[in-house]
Amino acid sequence: LAAGPLVFLSSLAVDSISPSVSSHAGGTFVTISGHGMGNGTRIITGGAAVQVCDKLCTIVSASYDEIVCKTPAIDTPDSYIAFDHVQPVVLVGTPSTATQLFDDDLESYSSACEVIFDLGEDKLASITRIRFHPRLFKRNEAVGSVFEISVDGMTYTVVAKVEQGITDGWTEMAIRTATDFVRYIRYSGPTSGPCSMAELEYQGLYVNNITGNTCPVTVATYPVYHPSE
């Protein structure tokens, strides 16, 4: 009788991680010791994968009992203090409604009076600038709009309000004092009239959603398939 396929099961365990401290800028070579690590460095087709603060730690070498990887840059509140040259970027997230406010089409617009912008459960950001474009030839309908931020989506703090004197084009509102790191940004239209807006854009500094300065390290292995010759 022909023998069936042989299945080898190996448990994965981590005994130690060294060093336990890495630079915010990344580039630290970290050694993870244990067993069942896998013997490949391929991430998609098989082998070992390591994440630090939900970011990929680049595999340098991997064996059954040891992985060496190069840490990524980790953005934390303390890292922005240490590296004050970090530039804000356009924030990416998911609007609760009125997706046309983020479609780069000035001819489309939304009459929604409340739109909550969610950065995602693994991201926080400090808001530094808000840009908006009112509905074409309807700039007065944007006056009185309010922008608020929240960590938990329950309690909001006002950071900017649209005043008289805006133009029919893009208006930028700089947040003079960097905000706390938050997950949600809420746009609310004016309470005294129709809500009408064409485009919204939020800029800020991303930070990984971590507690203090401690990062979780995740180790996973994937099966490597070796076809018979």
Describe what you observe in this structure.
The protein is built from 1 helix and 16 strands. It has one helix spanning 77-82; strands at 13-18, 29-35, 47-52, 55-62, 66-70, 89-90, 94-95, 114-118, 123-134, 146-150, 157-161, 171-174, 181-182, 184-188, 197-208, 217-222. The strands form 3 sheets. Strands 1-2-5-4-3-16 form a 6-stranded antiparallel beta sheet, with no helix packed on it. Strands 6, 9, 12, 13 and 15 form a 5-stranded antiparallel beta sheet that branches. A hairpin with a 3-residue loop joins strand 4 and strand 5. Residues 40-46 have low confidence and may be disordered.
Give the tally of β-strands: 16
Derived structural class: mainly beta
Report helical residue fraction.
Answer: under 10%
Q: Report the C-alpha radius of gyration, rounded.
A: 24 Å
Give unreliable regions as ranges: 40-46
Our count of helices gives: 1
What's the pLDDT, averaged over the residues?
83
Q: In whole angstroms, how far apart are the ends?
A: 21 Å
Biggest sheet statistics:
6 strands, antiparallel
Which geometry do the CA atoms define? elongated
- Going across the biggest sheet, name each strand in turn: 1-2-5-4-3-16
What series of H and E elements makes up the topology?
A: EEEEEHEEEEEEEEEEE
